[in-house]
Design the sequence.
């Protein structure tokens, strides 16, 4: 029987290196979730937001998608 995701995560985070990496990635996940919420709360699709920002939908997708291989770094939008 396969472990649940929760059990797998708990076990993985017992490893200090895994935990440090996980915690290091947390701000990017939080930011992306906030960006998606803000966009949706404003009633925009990715395409509509891209038009307002004079960019391509693919750029909005990359900002919101943590799994994108070409996802920008937080430093891209850090002030």
Sequence:
């Amino acid at each position: 029987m396969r472990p649940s995701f929760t059990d797998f995560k708990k076990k993985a985070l017992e490893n200090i290196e895994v935990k440090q990496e996980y915690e290091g990635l947390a701000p990017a996940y939080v930011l992306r979730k906030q960006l998606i919420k803000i966009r949706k709360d404003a009633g925009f699709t990715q395409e509509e937001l891209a038009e307002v920002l004079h960019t391509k939908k693919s750029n909005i997708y990359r900002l919101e998608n943590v799994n994108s291989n070409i996802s920008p770094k937080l430093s891209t939008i850090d002030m």
Observations:
- The first helix runs from residue 5 to 12.
- DSSP finds four helices and no strands in the chain.
